[in-house]
Amino acid sequence: MIADLYVSAWILQFPGDHSALHPAGPQASNIEWLYWVIFWIVFIAYILVVAGFTRAAAKTYSSSQEMLPVGFDPEKDKRAAWAVGSAITITVLTLFVILFMSIITGKKVEGVTTSKNPVTIQVIGHQWWWEVIYPNPQADQTITTANEIHVPVGKPVVILTNSADVIHSFWPPSVNGKHDLLPGYSSAFWMQIDSPGVYRGQCAEFCGMQHAHMGFAIVAESDEQFTAWQQQQVKPAPDPMAADAQHGKQVFLTRACVMCHTVRGTDAGSRMGPDLTHVASRQMIAAETLPNTRGNLAGWIIDPQRVKPGNHMAPNPLPADELQDLITYLQTLQ
């Protein structure tokens, strides 16, 4: 329940960043255009139906207490048949027009970018978090993070997707449409964001009991900010200087943390869970479920099942001093 309140507060803070009606790029703009075309067609049809029923009710109104005789008027029946036939024809033609526009919009949204050097990002869906990889021919320049996708403003980005377990669906409403991630099958699409900001996304395919807590954020920033972020992310984790952070590092490397997580620059190299090399630089934790604060980190480490029941992280009942030093160490991982 507490996690739900956090998510609700996040959405209320950025209401326009989680809506298909607030497009931030060309793909979302095409989808919004199709939405409004369909909306106005349906709205006009609704008004015509209500007007027709109102007119018919007014013409046939009678205060008689007895049942009126059934009339037979060939001329009226002919006009009624013509009206019904016309309505059916218009409906069918309208549906075909909408189908045609949907296909055209889909081709625009899925169109291949003509840019020679798009940013390429691999997104892998897990129960229930997102692994984000920025591939590079040089292995030591590959960036691996989780749940937070950084992109440069105004540049095309190619998203490569697959799933590590079940079917997921990648959906940032303000940026693009829904894209399914299928186990054993890779797919790709491209997107572009023209306005800087933080745009929330969500898994849109039921993938298990914590499906609703499988969010992600797309951070659109200037070229300079994006380059600075990349340069920081490729660095290994620095050795902590303070004594409590040094002790926290030892806790991390000798407790269950090392069995599931990676911190580059240390002996921790497991890929069962998210890469934590720069975890302190992320705004949220637990797939956009909790703000990345000291208190939330402590609660998540001690009892992650209370926040996201059924997730694959086991409770870690650490002594108070070890927990505090561990959090201090994690907060040095910028």
Question: Would you mind describing this structure in some detail?
Answer:
Helix content is 39%, strand content 18%. It has a five-stranded mixed sheet with strand order 3-2-1-5-8, with no helix packed on it. A five-stranded mixed sheet has the order 4-10-9-6-7. The chain has helices at 2-13, 26-59, 74-110, 223-233, 243-254, 294-302, 304-307, 320-330, and strands spanning 119-126, 129-134, 143-146, 148-152, 157-163, 168-171, 179-181, 187-191, 197-203, 215-221, 284-285, 290-291. With 334 residues, it is α+β, with helices and mostly antiparallel strands.
- Gyration radius (Cα, Å) is 27 Å
Overall SS class: alpha+beta
Share in helix? 25-40%
What's the number of extended β-strand segments?
A: 12
Oligomer: single chain
Features:
alpha+beta, five-stranded mixed β-sheet, 8 helices, 334 residues, elongated
Secondary structure layout plus pairing:
Layout: H1 2-13, H2 26-59, H3 74-110, E1 119-126, E2 129-134, E3 143-146, E4 148-152, E5 157-163, E6 168-171, E7 179-181, E8 187-191, E9 197-203, E10 215-221, H4 223-233, H5 243-254, E11 284-285, E12 290-291, H6 294-302, H7 304-307, H8 320-330
Parallel strand pairs: 1-5, 4-10
Antiparallel strand pairs: 1-2, 2-3, 5-8, 6-7, 6-9, 9-10, 11-12
Helix pairs in contact: 2-3, 5-8, 6-8
